[in-house]
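Teaching assistant's notes for section 4

Start the section by putting this record on the projector. Ask students to predict, before seeing the second block, whether tRNA 5-carboxymethoxyuridine methyltransferase will look compact or extended. Collect guesses on the board.
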Amino acid sequence: MTHSTPLSPAGDRHFDGLAEKFAGSLYGGPRGALRLALLDELLPAMLDLDGQPMLDVGGGLGQLSAWFAGRGHTVTLLEPAGEMLERARVDLVEWPVTFVEAPLQALPERAPGPWPLIACHAVLEWLSDPRAALATLAGALAPHGQLSLMVFNRDALRMSNVVKGNLQKALDDRLEGTGKRQRLTPISPLCHEQIATWSRDCGLSVRSVAGIRVFHDYLRHPPTSEADWQRLVALERRYCQAEPHWRLGRYLLYTLVRAEGSSEEAPR
Ligand SMILES: C[S@@+](CC[C@H](N)C(=O)[O-])C[C@H]1O[C@@H](n2cnc3c(N)ncnc32)[C@H](O)[C@@H]1O
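Reveal the predicted structure now:
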């Protein structure tokens, strides 16, 4: 059954009605496994982690919150879709996680911080105003606080459309989804230049960047043996931060650091 799922009053795609599909298609298969394997290696390398409190914005089903909680962080998971949050609450019952049902735009009231560490993965591309959202995240960071930001890469979406033969769609640059029905094509896919410019405009510096799935999504023949799967994982690991490959990762993963000083203390 397909049914229309309205956007939020702010024009964002909250994942109410999508939890099951999201769990299956984004985390159920090899794409999700690869993403988690790469994050497992990249996050400790790209972030200074010392068990500081962290905020997971648009935390969805809580996989990332569980990763940080498992490494000694107390976690606050902010998520506007009640259905996603309920599933996360059940799955993360063992961990020190506080759940807040609210959108990113309510961050200043509902989880003001300032935070030494914020993660916002695969959320900005579902918002009607991702630039304003990045400024809100920057405003919630403590001085020298780190933002682990992951966004769906518009340049990779173009590439995969061409590879699949959707040539007119690519020529017309009609890449974004509408956010209607059960589709998981983001409404605001983003490119590196936007993140670099917007970060600078809101006082964040780009400390490091990586591409998540720089090869997998373009394969004509996905691996069928465990040995080939391991070879693919090794290739993804080797080239995820190398020029020019990271630029065509399905997602772009950033560590952004708030540079300017502030008199506010981070919670510890
Ligand atoms: C693709 S999922 C990513 C979930 C999780 N961060 C992850 O990486 O697995 C996008 C999430 O963003 C949430 N979302 C949509 N609009 C939002 C908003 N305005 N503020 C915060 N989260 C939002 C959705 O409800 C959904 O849970």
